[in-house]
Design brief:
CATH architecture of the largest domain: 3-Layer(aba) Sandwich
Distance between the termini: 19 Å
Structural class: alpha/beta
Number of strands: 16
CATH class of the largest domain: Alpha Beta
Number of domains: 3
CATH superfamily of the largest domain: Glycogen Phosphorylase B
Length: about 450
């Protein structure tokens, strides 16, 4: 939850700020204060959570306060109360668009006690649309957005399968016009089913910030993504190499890896009857990609070394060559049980690119598995080797790690616990979506 609180300074401004802070725990907030000559001018300028407007007269500073506010949800303090009345719209300059309209809530008179629920009431007015592809896989995105406002979902893949691409795009445009969201978060990576003209028409009819995120990767960026990138405000990629490629084409782009639905992927009671293996890999086979040969080599060798103590769960594996591979695990809650039941989970992402990892890493670690991923450039930004995870460069390194951790339960549990704590603290979908909203609202995005 993020909010900017606009206040006119009076003689009691210091005590007022100190009192309000006590009620803002758990809220990402800032104060925007107009000071017309109080004795607290120096104190105000020294506070890290306050932006100050110094004016010597009674000129109106409302528009300036709104333009300075970093958050899209604003509440104006007046006469000691935060009571909601009419909603108005003001323009605001952002990095993602020349001008953007945002909802501002005027408030007036009565008590001096600011409660968190009043701010949450303002947040509820922040409308967002999540254009989802596989909602079962990215439900955490919707839940992350819901912490900042009212969210509705539109599943473009389901509607395309039901009514075809043309009708789906008409339905989507109607949905956007009806909802009039302030922000659209879209997942449209490779198919091109959501047409750029649909988003372009929506942006012509209203001021809306649009973000398109691709959590998967292909060797080259599809032309459909480039076309969409020229229409939306930001294209977020889950690898840094293709972010750089986008920027060279003058497409606004930033890096955002997948996140984790931490309410779903959490350590639960082990079920060794359903998942009896010590070592597991959850991933697909069959499709040819950069690391497909390595993936096949590793799983083949692990099966020879550990037999039934090792299992692969996933789609696409050749049943003649890999008759021992088990099926895809669903629903998602069962994945958490699998990761909670094993001793070690391994990771081999499809591609080698700076910052790129599949969502497998977040899911396994958040569920309490000791995770052994193949190293990728940038993993050291998040974790320390053999503290939260133990990565490897070659299969022999992986086999050495597995042997070590299977023989040292205390070390394995220590790494698993530290990794689980790190992912749940810093890599939830809620945190990813907060960074997205900062980006849309013109604030500097946090480096993941």
């Amino acid at each position: 939850m993020e909010v900017s609180l606009i206040i006119e300074a009076g003689k009691d401004i210091k005590s007022k700020i100190l009192g309000l802070r006590k009620h803002l725990e758990g809220i990402d907030y800032e104060f925007v204060v107009t000071d017309r000559g109080t004795e607290y001018r120096k104190w105000l300028s020294q506070q890290g959570d306050i932006q100050v407007i110094f004016v010597p007269d009674r000129r109106d500073t409302e528009n300036l306060s709104i333009d300075m506010a970093r958050n899209s949800n604003l509440v104006t303090y007046s006469d000691g109360d935060w009571e909601h009345s009419e909603k108005i719209t003001k323009p605001r300059v952002t990095r993602s668009a020349p001008r953007k309209k945002i909802d501002v809530v005027r408030v007036s008179k009565a008590k001096s006690n600011m409660k968190k629920k009043h701010v949450r009431k303002v947040i509820e007015e922040n409308r967002m649309l999540h254009i989802s592809s596989f909602p079962d896989n990215t439900s955490g995105i919707t839940e992350g957005l819901e912490t900042m406002g009212r969210v509705e979902c539109f599943n473009w893949r389901e509607r395309t399968n039901a009514v075809g691409r043309a009708t789906m795009n008409k339905e989507l445009l109607s949905k956007i016009v009806e909802l009039r969201p302030g922000t659209i978060f879209m997942e449209e990576c490779f198919t091109g089913d959501v047409l750029p003209i649909t988003i372009e028409q929506a942006k012509r009819s209203m001021t809306v910030g649009v973000v398109n995120w691709c959590g998967d990767m292909r060797e080259t960026i599809p032309e459909s993504m480039l076309s969409m990138g020229r229409v939306v405000d930001w294209t977020l990629m889950s690898n840094e190499r293709q972010v750089r490629e986008m920027l060279k084409l003058s497409i606004h782009s930033a890096f955002m890896p997948a996140g984790c639905a931490t309410d779903l992927y959490k350590r639960v009671d082990a079920d060794r009857e359903q998942f009896p293996e010590d070592i597991i890999f959850l991933g697909s086979g069959g499709r040819k990609f950069e690391n497909s040969a390595l993936r096949e080599q590793v799983v083949t060798e692990l099966r020879k070394l550990y037999g039934d103590r090792f299992a692969v769960y996933g789609r696409g594996w050749n049943k003649r060559r890999y008759p021992w591979v088990k099926g895809f695990i669903e629903p998602e809650a069962a994945e958490a049980i699998a990761y909670s039941s094993c001793k070690i989970a391994i990771g081999i992402s499809a591609f080698n690119a700076d910052g790129y990892t599949s969502a497998r890493m977040w899911k396994a670690m958040s569920s309490g598995a000791c995770y052994l991923p193949r190293r990728f450039n940038g993993i050291e930004k998040w974790f320390t080797q053999q503290q939260e995870a133990a990565w490897w460069n070659t299969p022999s390194e992986l086999f050495s790690h597995i042997k070590y951790y299977l023989s040292r339960d205390d070390e394995r549990v220590r790494v698993a616990d530290a990794g689980m704590k790190a992912v749940r603290a810093d890599h939830s979908w809620e945190q990813r979506m907060r960074s997205v909203m900062r980006l849309v609202n013109g604030r500097t995005i946090r480096t993941f």
